[in-house]
Amino acid sequence: MQSKAHTFTANARAALADEPLQAALARFQGGFPVKRRAAIDRLPEFDALRDAGKAIKDAALANLDIYLEQFEAKVVAAGGHVHWCEDAAAARQTVIDLCREAGAKTITKAKSMIGEEIAINEALAAAGFTPIETDLGEYIIQLRDEAPSHIIVPAVHLSKEQVAESFRAHHRDLPAERPLSEPQAMLDEARAILRQAFLTADVGITGANMLIAETGSTVLVTNEGNADLTQTLPRMQIVIASIEKVVPTLEDAATVLRLLARSATGQELSVYTTFTTGPKRGDDLDGPAAFHVILLDNGRSRMLGGPFAEMLRCIRCGACLNHCPVYSAVGGHAYGWVYPGPMGSVLTPNLIGLAGTSDLPNASTLCGRCEEVCPMRIPLPRMLRQLRRDAFASGGGPKPMRAGLAAWAFVAGRPWLYRLATGLGVRILGLLGRRHGRFRRLPGASGWTAVRDLPAPAGRTFQALWTERNGARQ
């Protein structure tokens, strides 16, 4: 269900021409950003919490080996098992082996971006299992064979009419006369199908918002409760989590939770926040008989100690997506892989390589809103600029862009030539644009004039005016 291409430019053009998508994105803008602002206004200490959360994650990353080994020891002591997987292929094979060990047929799955990252649904289906997404949004896009378009609201790109159409196409027992015009009716329809899946599943697969080294617990945050049913009803639970999700203590987890829901959905706390430690014990009324945690690296160790290590503080709240003007214009599928928006534009090149994703760092206006709202204070604009430099240094990027940058560097590196070129350019454009004061079309500037007019220069260059008023430089 992953997008077939990583080429942001081509995907973005298609997204801008997609009228249903543009309508869905327009509706989205009035939601989470407004709710986040209101939730933060009710919490005067929010900025202090951001500092505390950053310090917690930095300490965990600086001692990642220690905390991961502590987490493993606690999981084993509680009766669980930990599997270390270097890459996606190893993680997929481990999950398949465990499902075969359990004699599984049906597998329920809670929403997990790591599951998307390793393409676990495709792997399970190819191995003969039936994976069923239980998060409503993930279930809808599974029916449509699509990738998530947002890390917390995966079906945000769809209208309710498109959802109803998907239900009618895939739910064979759905009466033709049954109305599906309202969200509640569609929810009831999905619940009827998913309830049976919960009751018959042999294995449940979840992600984890955090791993707690102190107790060996996993933390799941949802608003639907589907993850709780996924992890407690089947005989076996498999948790798939990336290594940077570990935090040292329960107190640290509580601090991060105060940041997570407010930044993501504008809630003070998500409806379901569940801590799980090991398999079912003798006196427990429910829970899995077998509990397995898969710890996935998949390129994250390479990021430690480097210029992109701070990206590993990300708690997947989606705030950077919700406030990004580029994401708001093209949606998540344009980014070509699992992680969209500013965080994806940094994380994807680090995980799968810059060679095939060199246009992603350019999918940003560098306005800084992503860093401004990030609860972990991740310097996303700085990292995007670094990736742009890396892509250029490695010979990446379109040839016209590279040629243009080379020409600009040649001129900008020679002040006399820069002043001459800009002075002539301003005078010529000023004369050509004198009649209307703007250009609706301009050769070489179509990226601007395709969507807005370009103002004609009104006078001389800034440097010329500065020299006139303050004297020439000595």
From TrEMBL:
SUPFAM superfamilies: alpha-helical ferredoxin, NagB/RpiA/CoA transferase-like. GO terms for biological process: lactate metabolic process. Keywords: 4Fe-4S, Electron transport, Iron, Iron-sulfur, Metal-binding, Repeat, Transport. Residues 305-335 form the 4Fe-4S ferredoxin-type domain. This is Lactate utilization protein B. The lineage of its organism: Bacteria, Pseudomonadati, Pseudomonadota, Alphaproteobacteria, Rhodospirillales. The gene is lutB. The keyword Iron-sulfur applies. It comes from Candidatus Defluviicoccus seviourii. GO terms for molecular function: 4 iron, 4 sulfur cluster binding; metal ion binding. Signal peptide: none annotated. Pfam families: Fer4_8, LUD_dom, LutB_C.
